[in-house]
Design goal:
Radius of gyration: 19 Å
CATH architecture of the largest domain: Alpha-Beta Complex
Number of helices: 10
Shape: globular
Strand content: 5-15%
Strand order of the largest sheet: 3-2-1-4-9-6-10
Helix content: 25-40%
Distance between the termini: 32 Å
């Protein structure tokens, strides 16, 4: 019997998902024609939900649905995984070509026993220190004025700088001020010094760990809504502001509160 239950977040009906040993969950279900979707597919506008916030929260509306409606019913000894319709957990690193016709045999369906020493499996971190100087001039001019050394010192090209460049100057620090006192200073310190974060809001973890993560994350993001009016959230980097804030906080939280390891995953666009 498998010790892993994997939920796959999607925004559209993709029949292949029923063949991949995953449980499809449709993000932003409030705006879909449900007659086009199988009844057993989870819609994130059922039960306690924030589906209508999907425009600004992205895949986090599905995480919220899981937290409020499914988490308390799952086997506490099982691993719970989240993947996306274009990003999947693998059994192991594979150099051979994986495509839609053979992906099922490579998917992680059982977490190895040696992983029991960990609280969570995460994808490889994204290192943002390699951002091009030309892009810093284009998107991070205010940061240059504050600290010109970011042009020459890659260690200064941090998670905070990356967020400032792509999601609005000062927004990460502004949001961090709303964190609880246990995390506020640590989060700012992490974002200002670290050059890596775990992207994509996908992971494999245990129910008890996930409950703690979700409680802290959504408490904070709902407070953040009060300082980022919807009309100010424009463009790709701004519209999904709370999704991107949650992505950074997930990385921080797992680093601070959990014992983690990285695990192989695959980008595969099954829509093509």
């Amino acid at each position: 019997m498998s010790n892993l239950e994997t939920y796959c977040i999607t925004h559209s009906y993709l029949p292949i998902l029923d063949d991949l040993s995953v449980i499809p969950i449709v993000a932003g279900s409030h705006k879909i024609d449900k007659s086009r979707y199988p009844k057993h597919w989870i819609k994130d506008d059922e039960g306690v939900n924030i589906s209508k916030k999907n425009k600004h929260f992205g895949s986090l509306t599905s995480h919220y649905w899981f937290w409020k409606n499914r988490l308390k019913t799952v086997d506490k000894n099982k691993w719970i995984g989240f993947c996306h319709y274009r990003r999947y957990w693998l059994k192991e690193e594979k150099n051979s070509e994986i495509n839609k016709t053979n992906i099922k045999q490579y998917l992680l369906t059982n977490v190895p026993e040696e992983c029991n020493q960990y609280d969570a499996l995460l994808c490889n971190p994204l290192n943002v220190s390699g951002v091009k100087v030309s892009k810093i001039f284009k998107r991070g001019f205010k940061n240059i004025i504050h600290d010109p050394s970011i042009l020459f010192n890659k260690k200064k090209r941090t998670v905070k700088l990356h967020f400032d460049m792509f999601h609005g100057y000062g927004n990460l620090e502004k949001a961090a001020k709303l964190l609880n006192k246990e995390d506020k200073d640590d989060f700012i310190n992490w974002a200002s010094k670290d050059v890596e974060f775990y992207p994509l809001v996908i992971f494999v973890s245990k129910p008890e760990i996930m409950n703690r993560l979700y409680e802290k994350t959504f408490e904070w993001l709902f407070e953040c809504e009060k300082i980022f009016p919807k009309q100010s959230l424009v463009g790709y980097g701004g519209t999904r502001m709370f999704d991107f804030l949650g992505e950074r906080y997930f990385s921080f939280w797992f680093n601070k509160y959990a014992k983690i390891t990285t695990w192989p995953w695959l980008f595969l666009d099954i829509t093509k």
